[in-house]
Amino acid sequence: MTLVQMQPRPANANPVHRTVGDAMEAAGPQVCDDMTVEVALAVMASARTGHLLVCDEDGLCTGLVTQAGLAAIRNSAAYSDQVRLRDVLGDRGPLTSPVTTMVEAEHAMRCRRLDALPVVDEQGSALGVLALAR
Question: Mind listing the pLDDT tens digit for each residue in 89-116?
């Protein structure tokens, strides 16, 4: 896997010093954590995206859900149509900062087996998504 690069890299950019902010995608669709899994899957389908950023009632990013992850939850024996995104996300995170180096972010994503990671500012608002390419 290699990291997706959405912005052209200057010829003099040193890959060791590149940051998440240099490579992240735009934030894309954001939904509230009180949304049900079914509605989130419908939003993903209509937006033609494989993930959604999830925010709390204060607008702070609490994580990211993927189509594959929500489909697995929907197909589990314990699933009901009342399950909300906050129920499947648990605690906040994982999240990263735009000033995190690409080396650090890629290592963290590989260790946690993440395909995408929300990028947030100092206040916790979503700025974008760092995604691994397949």
Answer: 876 678 999 999 999 999 999 998 888 8
Map out the domains of the chain with their CATH numbers: 17-133 (3.10.580.10)
> 116-120 and 126-133: which strand pairing?
antiparallel
Q: Which amino acid is at 53?
A: L
Note the pLDDT tens digit of each residue in 46-87.
999 999 999 999 999 999 999 999 999 999 998 998 999 999
Tell me how far CA of residue 94 lies from CA of 54, 64, 78, 107, 127, in angstroms: 12, 8, 25, 13, 14
Burial 36-74 (b: 16+ CB within 10 A, else e): ebeebbeebeeeeeebbbbbbeeebbbbbbbeebbeebe
